[in-house]
Amino acid sequence: MNTTIITDIKTFVTAPRNLNLVVVRIETNQPGLVGHGCATFTWRHEAVVTAIDKYLRPMMVGRQVNAVEDAWQTMMGSSYWRNSAVLNNAISGVDEALWDIKGKAAGMPLYELFGGKSREGALVYQHADGRTYEEVAAMVQGYLDSGTRHIRCQMGTYGGNANGKMQSIAKPEGAPHGAYFSPRDYMRSTVELFSRLRADFGYEVEFMHDIHERLPLVQALELAKDLEPYKLFFLEDALPPDQVQYFKNLREQTSVPFAMGELFTHPLEWRSIIQNQWIDFIRVHISDIGGVTPARKLAALCEAYGVRTAWHGPNDLSPIGAAAQIHLDLNSPNFGIQEFAGFTEEERAIFPGCPELRNGYLYLNEQPGIGVGFDETEAAKFPAVELDTSWLFARLPDGTAARP
Ligand code: GCO
Ligand code: MG
Predict the structure, then answer these.
(1) Rounded distance from Cα 228 to ligand 2 centre (Å)
(2) Ligand closest to the CA atom of residue 45
(3) Contacts with 194 (C-beta within 8 Å, 6 or more apart), sequence order
(4) 265-310 pLDDT per residue, tens
């Protein structure tokens, strides 16, 4: 076997839909053999790029490509302090690029390296979000017409800021600027939303909802119980990562299925909730836990406890990261569902080989490795942008800073 050596690691930032995507390319001494990985942490993209360029690149150049597990363990230990979103995303970029190379060298898609397919396509859910009920309902109908049967519904995005409600919140004098929301209004409008959706669409379609850690613990329980009659497929991120022990109370008091974890960065955040079977779906952001290597282990841990996977698939994820998830989806026996934010024409041009959505299922292109390329010239047409971060500065009615 020829020795394949890492000769360079390059990072790229591109923003085809005004969200900065971070892409890693590993080059090797084998002509034409390169790998790509996703390191997208859109709100801190420059910190991730620095972590790769200044720390991981010098450590990894000159190493053989084969030992992906050893590379992952080495990178993870190399900063002594670890498990942060920035460092995990940086590691993910390298990890996924190494898996991409391994697949290309073997001439196989990743799912074959994992043990082959458990299914041909990955079932997806998509997002309906509108300012009014009518807007949400129109989006739901659009998805149903296109073949998507699992739909996450929000009104006024996270925290339910529909119809300029934010302006009418009674704040104290001198209250700071921010993205105000009222937990009570949000709860009320969400229950009404699902009541109307069920009345109009019946029970054939599957609905989900994302609390996005917007509620005090006991109100998350109240909302879950209030939503019980509407038979959700799951309720997302009911609690913040530092309060996951409260899932015990949720589990004991409501039959709503729970999906949790897009903010997780540390294995201790998920271990007990899986072992106690307090959640039904794990939905970490794969690059945020360090890439494909830890995600495979997490999926296997979940399998042992009857928890299904529903990896986080928002629009601040590159198509490379999205495809890496689908390789896991096709292989894992305990795959549940895949969140999918779609790809724009611009993304398809920058990332040749994007997965395809047909009739509610995502399909890979069957190329070796991850199967999604990266066109530098197309990417350069969409350089990094200054992001609109206003929604991240969430505030409660009395002006207290809250989690977004
Ligand atoms: C989801 C998420 C996202 C996040 C976003 C943060 O369930 O898809 O909650 O929409 O808010 O990824 O940058
Ligand atoms: Mg979410």
Answers:
(1) 19
(2) 1
(3) 153, 207, 209, 227, 230, 232
(4) 999 999 999 999 999 999 999 999 999 999 999 999 999 999 999 9
Same domain? For 183 and 199 the reply is yes
Residues 174 and 286 in one domain: yes
- 248 and 123 in a common domain: yes
Decide if 393 is inside a domain: no
Verify that 216 and 360 share a domain, yes or no. Answer: yes
The domain spanning residue 274 has which CATH number? Answer: 3.20.20.120
Number of domains in the chain: 2
Looking at residue 360, its amino acid is G
Span from the CA of 225 to the centroid of ligand 1 (angstroms): 24
- In angstroms, the CA 320 to CA 23 distance is 8
pLDDT digits (tens, 9 = 90+) for 216-259: 999 999 999 999 999 999 999 999 999 999 999 999 999 999 99
Interatomic CA distance for residues 84 and 80, integer angstroms? 11
The catalytic position among 45, 212, 285, 327 is 212
Is this structure's pTM higher than 0.90?
yes
- Locate the ligand 1 atom nearest the alpha carbon of residue 315 and give its number: 12
The set of residues, in sequence order, having a beta carbon less than 8 Å from that of 52 and lying 6+ positions away, is: 9, 11, 24, 39, 90, 93, 94
- Closest C-alpha residue for ligand 1 atom 9: 212
Please tell me whether residues 117 and 90 are part of one structural domain: no
SS3 content of the chain, % helix, strand, coil (to 5): 45, 15, 40
CA 49 / ligand 2 centre spacing (Å): 24
Token digits of residue 337:
């569902």
Between CA 322 and CA 136 the distance in angstroms is: 25
Tell me which residue range forms the domain holding 28: 6-109
Q: Name 377's Cβ contacts closer than 8 Å, sequence gap at least 6.
A: none
212 is an active site residue? yes
Q: Are residues 222 and 236 in the same domain?
A: yes
Atom of ligand 1 nearest to the CA of 212: 9
The span from the first CA to the last CA of the chain, in angstroms, equals: 51
Do 76 and 155 lie in a common domain? no
Ligand 1 neighbours, Cβ below 6 Å, are: 42, 210, 212, 236, 262, 314, 316, 339
**How many residues are given for the chain?**
404
DSSP single-letter state for residue 29: S
